Amino acid sequence: MIELKSAEEIGRMAVAGQFVGELLAELGDVAAVGVNLMDLEHHARRRIAERGAESCYWDYAPSFGRGPFRNVLCLSVNDAVLHGLPHDYVLRDGDLLSIDMAVGIDGWNADSALSVVVGTPDPADLKLIEATEVALEAGIAAAQPGGRLGDISAAIGAVAHSYGYSVNGEFGGHGIGRTMHEAPHVANSGRAGRGMKLQPGLTVAIEPWFCRSTNKIKFDGDGWTIRSADGSRTAHSEHTVAVTASGPQVLTRRPAGGATPADPTRKPAAAS
Question: What architecture is domain 7-250?
Answer without folding.
Answer: Alpha-Beta Complex (3.90)
